[in-house]
Design brief:
By secondary structure, this protein is mainly alpha-helical. The protein has a domain of about 180 residues. About 65% of the residues lie in helices and about 0% in strands. The protein is built from 21 helices and 2 strands. It has a two-stranded antiparallel ribbon with strand order 1-2.
Length: about 500
């Protein structure tokens, strides 16, 4: 039994050690900022970098003799361990630097950042040390494209099965599709697009009127679809339609598949976007949702004119359904149909291969087409009705995976909401908190709405939300397969 566990676990811990060592080096960025600004958070980042480095090096050399090529099983385990452990070490600077912050709150804030959920337990963001705000937003940025995908891109000398890591961490139902012959080249290509969009977003924010520091931080959490801000009022701090338009554009772009951006860039053409069904559905959902919410707000006279209603609807709707989580106003106070519609769209709107969360648009399309196919087969039992999207056929295995994923997703929402209500939360807060964490959206409704925080939740409720963030980021199957007996058999 021990030999089986050693064979399965040690090679994964070896890679974990290497990733933690690299993560310790990353901590030097906020540490340097804290030193330059003479902030008290120097101690927190110093401890964090030191502890992370020591643990990383220890794990690496302890298991170095057990290195081997990774298989699919190892990719699932590695992804889960990394995404659970990185927030543990990322929380050290927060725990040490912020007086009165419990370990539970520190871990929640850290995993919220790395999973790009960006639900927060902190208030007084405007007065936090710059290094702390930088760290929160930077965690969202490195978590956006994926810590493991970054490792595959820049650490090929690890000698591991990069394809297994990439497939375990990547989002969407078409994990086996390749953009380049080598997975490392694919990861590098996606990261270059990610970095280019980030730089473009920074420059756009600066031109629109943000300070350089704010532009950098909000570019991190816009491109990653994270939603952390350095201001309690989020984008309401600026009250600028120009800045909001910049955010809307980049949230929309990053809600689309980065693989599609990769193909379009390689072909130097917009044609791939026009021929991609998932992207067109993403565009359609954005237009319909914004239009619907605008009409409801205008009809209810919540805002004085239709253009003001359109401005607030466009920003908050795109922010929510892209699972970003920025806000310019408290949409909890809007007519009840609007926030429910927005949160419902967040469950499925973003594209597979984007930095967004939720079921993903492609799975939703597959499920819809499968339902229509069943109607046809009900009328014509002997008919052969292939399922295709955009001219390409979808295998029955992909269909069954989409169905299983969606079933598990719904069950987890129901169970999570029931447990949250059993521990004292009202229906709206409990359900929206679970959905917001599972979709990595961030703000929910009720107590955890856009102007509230998750600080009012108990420690147990925060740990449950943290678990939902983790499984939502890794698309559930990656995590839950670890709890099967077959996983631990050789």
């Amino acid at each position: 039994m021990f030999s089986n566990l050693r064979y399965i676990l040690f090679p994964v811990l070896n890679i974990t050690g290497a990733v933690l060592t690299a993560f310790a080096v990353i901590m030097l960025l906020p540490l340097t900022l804290a030193v330059v600004n003479d902030e008290p958070s120097v101690t927190g980042f110093g401890y964090g970098a030191f502890v992370t480095f020591i643990v990383g090096v220890f794990l690496f050399f302890l298991t170095n003799k057990n290195k081997r090529e990774l298989v699919a099983r190892d990719g699932f385990l590695l992804a889960t361990i990394i995404w659970a452990c990185i927030p543990l070490f990322a929380s050290i600077p927060l725990y040490v630097s912020l007086p009165g912050l419990s370990f539970t709150h520190a871990y929640f804030e850290a995993i919220s950042g790395t999973t790009t959920t960006c639900a927060t337990v902190l208030t007084g963001l405007d007065t936090l040390p710059q290094s702390i705000n930088f760290w929160r937003c930077f965690l969202s940025w490195i978590g956006g494209m994926g810590i493991l995908v970054l490792a595959v891109a820049i650490l090929p000398l690890l000698g591991v099965g990069g394809a297994q890591i990439f497939k375990a961490e990547a989002s969407g139902p078409m994990k086996d599709s390749k953009l380049t012959p080598r997975i490392a080249d694919t990861a590098k290509g996606l990261w270059w697009i990610y970095l280019t969009l980030t730089v473009a977003c920074v420059l756009a924010y600066i031109i629109a009127g943000m300070s350089v520091f704010d532009a950098l931080l909000h570019a991190f959490t816009t491109v990653s679809l994270g939603g952390f801000s350095s201001h309690d009022a989020s984008f309401g701090y600026w009250n600028s339609d120009t800045i909001e338009c910049v955010a809307i554009f980049f949230m929309f772009i990053c809600g689309a598949s980065f693989s599609l951006h990769f193909v379009a860039l390689r072909k130097r053409s917009v044609i791939p976007y026009l021929h991609n069904v998932e992207f067109l559905c993403w565009l359609g959902i954005c237009v319909v949702a914004v239009s619907t919410v605008t009409l409801i707000l205008w009809d209810s006279a919540y805002y004085s004119s239709w253009d003001v209603a359109l401005r607030h609807a466009a920003f908050n709707v795109i922010s929510t359904i892209s699972t970003t989580g920025f806000s310019t106003s408290d949409y909890n106070l809007w007519p009840i149909a609007t926030p429910i519609l927005m949160l419902a769209c967040a469950c499925f709107s973003t594209c597979g291969g984007s930095t967004g969360g939720g079921i993903k648009m492609l799975r939703s399309i597959i499920l819809l087409k499968q339902t229509l196919r069943e109607f046809t087969l009900l009328l014509h039992p002997k008919a052969v009705v292939p399922l295709s999207i955009g001219g390409g056929s979808i295998s029955n295995r992909v269909v069954s995976q989409a169905v299983a994923y969606s079933q598990l997703w719904i069950v987890l929402i129901l169970l999570g909401a029931i447990v949250m209500m059993a521990t004292g939360l009202d229906l709206v807060t409990a359900t929206s908190a679970i959905i917001a964490c599972l979709t990595n959206t961030g703000p929910g409704l009720g107590v955890v709405g856009p102007t509230g925080t998750f600080a009012q939740l108990s420690d147990f409720q925060l740990w449950l939300c943290s678990f939902c963030m983790l499984v939502g980021r890794l698309e559930m199957m990656t995590v839950f397969v670890l709890f099967t007996r077959a996983f631990w058999r050789l």
